[in-house]
Design brief:
Length: 147
């Protein structure tokens, strides 16, 4: 599926998402700092193992993305939502959330995010409440398995 939004193309799909650009977006927002080049393929694999995904393109450049993990019946979790800095503030992230929620309109939705993004998700209709999380990457970093 392709859609057009403010001169950009939004593609739906979990296959063929370019690992290099996903990595660049993650670095841009501070989710990643370097790492070995042989691990780059994981940035495509996280999409292939997701339930739904939307990527945003300005011509041939991917400038935003969202990916979702879901049981497709009762619940879904937005795992990653990233919009490149020059494209922020134009409603693109709201559009991506809306497209996601159309996939499971009567299900429970969760967002894997940090508290600095709570107001954004509230503006999308989410309720911010206490939750329970285990961050395995933090433990891996403490044990020296991740940078």
């Amino acid at each position: 599926m392709y859609q057009y939004f403010q001169g950009l193309t939004i593609r739906e799909g979990t296959k063929g998402v370019p690992a290099k650009r996903v990595k660049q977006l993650f670095e841009e927002v501070g989710w990643l700092r370097g790492g070995p080049s042989w691990q780059e393929e994981k940035f495509s694999l996280i999409f292939e193992n997701s339930t739904w995904a939307f990527t945003v393109w300005d011509q041939e450049e991917m400038v935003g993305m969202v990916r979702v993990v879901s049981d497709q019946i009762m619940m879904a979790t937005i795992m990653d939502l990233v919009v490149s800095e020059p494209y922020r503030g134009k409603g693109l992230a709201h559009k991506l959330i809306s497209l996601c929620m159309e996939k499971l309109p009567h299900g429970d939705w969760f967002a894997h995010t940090s508290d600095e993004n709570f107001s954004f998700y509230e503006s999308c209709g989410f309720q911010v409440e206490e939750n329970c999380s285990f961050y395995g990457y933090r433990k891996a970093r403490e044990e020296g398995h991740r940078i």
